[in-house]
Write a structure and sequence with these properties.
By secondary structure, this protein is α+β, with helices and mostly antiparallel strands. The protein has helices at about 1-10, 45-50, 55-60, 95-110, 140-145, 150-165, 235-250, 260-270, 275-280, 285-294, and strands at about 50-55, 65, 70-80, 80-90, 120-125, 125-135, 140, 170, 180-185, 190, 200. The strands form 3 sheets. Strands 1-5-6-4-3-2 form a 6-stranded mixed beta sheet.
């Protein structure tokens, strides 16, 4: 049932281009189950603009969890419980502030245990930040290759969370192994790093921008590169999910290169190796599912 549902969700996936193809027509795309009325959020604009000032004790006791190219992430104590504070590195631009507000707004209406909830905007060491719920888990990247049973349990949770986003009209655009936390004991997951999320409307769709790439290049969909004439929609997330699943089953990425342009070319023109050729123990229905996603 899980494999069947995965296959059905990307019934009209974007196809790989080849070097001789002319640009593809947008009118041939099936937009799936989105509508303008599908996005709902009960929070008010006032709640989005409210800023929580963390106590000096919370700031002093904060411990750095991770550092990315865009943000520093800390563990803090908030109202007697653990919480996460994400501080964007570049505080000078409006883009940084918008990313905080974007993650807060676009995840607020998604009531699902697999999506990390934003609690409030915050001030941390006089810098604008986002206060998020705590989840005690390990990234998929650290877990590496999984056994089939563990893979099925965890990937089912990932799909459930991703569909919850899509059902609320939100496209993530940054699904990768570092943005999925897993509690391996319970197989519970949490999708994090939601600042690149955007709403999707059939009447207001967009193409990728080659001058402003969003997401991890190892997981980016062909349409996100901006080099093919296809819209970025929920199928972009499922393409990225296909690469995540490939990693979960093999411990490796299908495309690797130190050159960003070469990576983008691989996503656009090169088919991934069939999973059963990489590992003959992987069941054929799962191999077919991954091939369909990508």
């Amino acid at each position: 049932l899980f494999i069947a549902s995965m296959s059905a969700m990307k019934e009209t996936k974007p196809t790989k281009s080849n070097d001789n193809d002319e640009s593809l027509s947008l009118s041939s795309r099936n937009f799936g189950h989105f509508s303008e009325s599908s996005y709902a959020c009960n929070s008010t604009e006032k709640e989005f603009t409210r800023i929580v000032t963390l106590s000096s004790e919370a700031v002093d006791d904060a411990s750095l969890i991770s550092v990315t190219c865009n943000a520093e992430v800390y563990c803090v104590s908030y109202m007697g419980e653990k919480a996460v504070v994400k501080v964007l590195k570049n505080q000078e631009t409006k883009i940084s502030e918008n990313r905080l507000l974007n993650e807060h707004k676009l995840t607020c209406g998604v009531s699902h245990h697999g999506i990390r909830r934003a609690i409030a905007r915050a001030l941390f060491k006089e810098k604008q930040a986002l206060l998020l719920e705590w989840f005690d888990g390990t990234t998929l990247k650290r877990l590496g290759k999984l056994r089939i049973r563990s893979f099925l349990q965890i990937s089912r949770e990932i799909v459930s969370a991703l569909v919850a986003l899509h059902d609320n009209g939100v496209v993530n655009k940054n699904i990768n192994t570092e943005n999925i936390l897993v509690d391996f004991d319970t197989t519970a997951i949490k999708i994090i790093g939601n600042s690149m999320c955007s709403r999707f409307y059939e009447k207001n769709c967009s193409l990728g921008n080659p001058n402003y790439l969003q997401g991890n290049l190892h997981f980016i969909s062909p349409e996100q590169t901006g080099n093919i004439d296809q819209i970025v929609d929920f199928r972009s997330d499922f393409y990225s999910l296909g690469i995540v699943i490939y990693y979960m089953l093999t411990g490796d990425l299908p495309y690797t290169s130190d050159s960003p342009s070469e990576l983008m070319h691989m996503h656009m023109f090169q088919d991934i190796p069939r999973l059963n050729r990489v590992d003959s123990s992987i069941p054929m229905p799962i191999c077919d599912m991954v091939a369909k996603l990508m």
